[in-house]
Write a structure and sequence with these properties.
It is built from four helices and no strands. By secondary structure, the chain is mainly α. The protein has one domain: de novo design (two linked rop proteins) (Up-down Bundle). The longest helix is centred in the last third of the chain and has 36 residues, at about 90-125.
Length: about 130
């Protein structure tokens, strides 16, 4: 079985989870258990989706995992942006997290596009 934990996207998602866990403890009490918890959940779920996309043999299932990942990831980026705008995150931390999210977004898009291309090639070969 292949191990996803050594891939760049997984390592970056793991680093993002560490950052999220570090910043959410200092969120205002009114938002710590709503926004903060959702950010933590989506960060953890992203690891699961990346693993599912990496380990699964079916191209269609892999694309499904990446689509789920990208949906949650967009919401996570929005929550991070709101946290930065409300100054719950320092400018330095926000910059670090923004770099990570940008890198992760590019990696997931490239990966999904390559899988979609593989599905197209596969279907053209059968037709």
């Amino acid at each position: 079985m292949r191990v996803s934990s050594g891939t760049k996207i997984y390592i970056d998602c793991r680093s993002l989870l560490d950052e999220i866990l570090n910043i959410t403890v200092d969120f205002p009490k009114n938002y710590k258990f709503t926004v903060g918890t959702k950010m933590q959940e989506y960060s953890i779920e992203s690891l699961n989706d990346i693993s599912g996309a990496y380990i699964n043999k079916s191209l269609h299932k892999r694309i499904e995992y990446l689509t789920n990942f990208q949906t949650k990831f967009e919401t996570l980026k929005t929550l991070i942006r709101i946290s930065g705008e409300r100054r719950w995150i320092s400018i330095k931390k926000f910059a670090t997290i923004s770099e990570l999210t940008s890198s992760i977004g590019k990696q997931s898009t490239a990966w999904k596009n390559s899988l979609v291309s593989a599905v197209k090639r596969e279907s053209e070969g059968q037709g």
